[in-house]
Design brief:
about 200 residues, Aconitase, domain 4, globular, single chain, 7-stranded mixed beta sheet, alpha/beta, 7 strands
Length: about 200
């Protein structure tokens, strides 16, 4: 898992509240067995019209937001079902973090496991970032996870809360497997003392 330390990137504004996981990645794309390739389906029903043609009014189709790596959205982002595919889709599309005033717990937990940062700021701070992303060409922000800070070149300085354990995992790129492998030496020592043949003999 790629560590998250300091990231600077262009911001795309999704000025909607209660963005649920079925909008982030619709259910018909959950049959895929890979963890990659979901980016092409992110916000599928909003990016494409009922006729399957590009909805040119959708924010992510605007050339000014091409290559954006930070998404700012309204409150209660990631609500709905627990599908981890929502995080996979956002990350595969190119986003490294999403900023909102509140997140669904399951979405935030899935994000941690995939090296994707959820930044919780106040309503006023989110509104400021949203407005600047809409009004300022090539608007960028810097997210410093070590300092738990967000800042831009227009005077914004904000701090965000994060659990110490979650912060540790993201800074060091540790998912559940990575956390386990930190104890690889102890696991190897235990296995050396308890060979499979001995275990089978005692069965």
């Amino acid at each position: 898992m790629k560590p998250f330390t300091v990231h600077r990137g262009r911001v795309a504004p999704l000025d909607r509240v209660n963005v649920d996981t079925d909008q982030i990645i619709p259910k018909q794309f959950l049959k895929r067995i890979e963890k990659t390739g979901f980016g092409q389906f992110v916000f599928y029903d909003w990016r494409l019209g009922a006729d399957g043609k590009k909805n040119t009014d959708f924010v992510l189709h605007e050339p000014r937001y091409e290559g954006a790596t930070v998404l700012v959205a309204g409150k209660n982002f990631g609500c709905g079902s627990s599908r981890e595919h929502a995080v996979w889709a956002l990350a595969d599309f190119g986003f490294r973090a999403v900023i909102s005033s509140s997140f669904a717990d399951i979405f935030a937990n899935n994000s941690t496991k995939n090296g994707f940062l959820t930044v919780r700021l106040s309503d006023d701070e989110v509104s400021t970032i949203m407005r600047r992303a809409q009004d300022i060409a090539d608007y960028e922000i810097t997210i410093d996870l070590e300092k738990c800070e967000v800042h831009d070149e227009h005077g914004l300085e904000a701090r965000f809360p994060i659990d110490d354990f979650v912060k540790h995992c993201l800074l060091h790129g540790l998912d559940d497997i990575g956390l386990t492998l930190q104890h690889e030496a102890e696991i190897a020592a235990y296995e050396a003392q308890h060979p499979p043949s001995a275990a089978l003999g005692n069965a």
